[in-house]
Amino acid sequence: MSDKMHLKLTVNGEAHETLAEPRELLIHVLREQLGITGPHIGCETSHCGACTVDMGGKSVKACTVFAAQAQGAEITTVEGLGAPDGLHVLQEMFREHHGLQCGFCTPGMITRAWRLLQDNPSPTEEEVRFGMSGNLCRCTGYQNIVKAILAAADQMNAMKEAAE
Description:
The chain is an alpha+beta fold. The protein is 35% helix and 15% strand.
């Protein structure tokens, strides 16, 4: 008899079934079993945010979520944000506004910023800084990350208005 549990979850729109130990962390299932390597393992204490994913409409740090807690969940990682023909607006703005340097924190930053903009499509600079405060970057000083998120918000709002 196996100690592993049968796990069903949807990641980036694709249904997955796997086996996981009850104490296994979501980040390990994503990276090691499903081959989804955008979320990074940084601190394993939830301080850095490099492992941030969107689960059930909320930003979560996958290094502190048990895989069992993701049973039946809809999960989006940075890989799920891009379009088949290009980058998501946030990804493009991070590139354009130099919101990344070494890139280690970038997947978690972009995924968290995506949820922030889903919840607040027109944030102020202060709201962006507060909303991103759980994600750490050791390289950039945050100025360009904030600029990238605000620019993405402007572009996403303009695209929404043009579609209406």
